[in-house]
UniProtKB/TrEMBL annotation:
Name by which UniProt lists this protein: Release factor glutamine methyltransferase
GO biological process: methylation
Source organism: Rubrobacter taiwanensis
Methyltransferase small domain sequence ranges: 112-199
Lineage summary: Bacteria, Bacillati, Actinomycetota, Rubrobacteria, Rubrobacterales
Family: Belongs to the protein N5-glutamine methyltransferase family. PrmC subfamily.
One Gene Ontology molecular-function label: peptide chain release factor N(5)-glutamine methyltransferase activity
Amino acid sequence: MVLAEGTRATARRVLCAAVRRLQEAGVPEPEASAEILLSELTGLRRGELYAGEFDLSRRQLERYAEWIAARERREPVQRILGYAYFRNLRLQLNEETLVPRPETESVVEAVLERVDRRGGSCRVLDLGTGSGAIAVSVAQERPRCRVYATDVSEAALRIARLNAAAAGVEVEFRRADLAAGLEDLVNGVDLLVSNPPYVPAGDIPRLMPEVRDWDPPRALDGGPDGLAFYRRIFSEAGRLLAPGAELVLEVGDGREGDVLRIGELYGYVARGVRTDLGSTPRAVLLSREV
Ligand SMILES: C[S@@+](CC[C@H](N)C(=O)[O-])C[C@H]1O[C@@H](n2cnc3c(N)ncnc32)[C@H](O)[C@@H]1O
């Protein structure tokens, strides 16, 4: 961080210099990035950064300068830190895991409501678990559920296992290409949840650099129309569902109608949509008739 020679490196001064650098580099929401990184580095709350007279050590200053340089190159804050906050959890990440998004928290809420309607204990399967965000949250917040989670990426599963252990919960993780090979779960799932890859392949080059260059392509690419995984879930995971099972599937902006229609074509009953905190439809709800 460039501070004039002999200037005290107070949190406030360092922060202002960082915001200027990020602004000049055209990084979106420069204040948020600079504040979160400094807050995580120092342990100060974001509100305290400007007020106090906290001086950074030389080591902290060097580390922060590296982080700000990484953010200038559009590395996301969570990748720089190596972890992300999601509901009650601090989830470790690696190069094979998507950064869990705040909007996915509403998908978890839709699952929890359905668990509660079923008396608080049921068998939940999270397809494409990534860092384990959905599966670990459900296991933590509804401990009487039995939670299973799959991913095709062994590296993602390694991190998801660590995240479950850190949260002190049990999730049965399986490496699987979607629902393949899960013979012991046939007719055994009451709630199927997934945040599948859903970006149309042709749109990926136009995504923000934070997503395009840093999230794993396998976590984004939803095939030519962005709907390939929903077709696969409806056709391949049906055999795992118990009679009356329910599905909660995250969807991209404006895709809820398409996904519900595909579900109906495969014989599922459309039960509506769930909005996220920004009031955008974020999950579709379906069920399998008894
Ligand atoms: C959009 S990410 C969601 C990750 C996590 N559930 C979340 O909400 O943050 C999709 C996940 O599906 C996984 N995936 C991609 N293809 C898959 C497949 N054929 N079978 C299982 N998982 C797959 C990716 O590795 C990635 O972790």
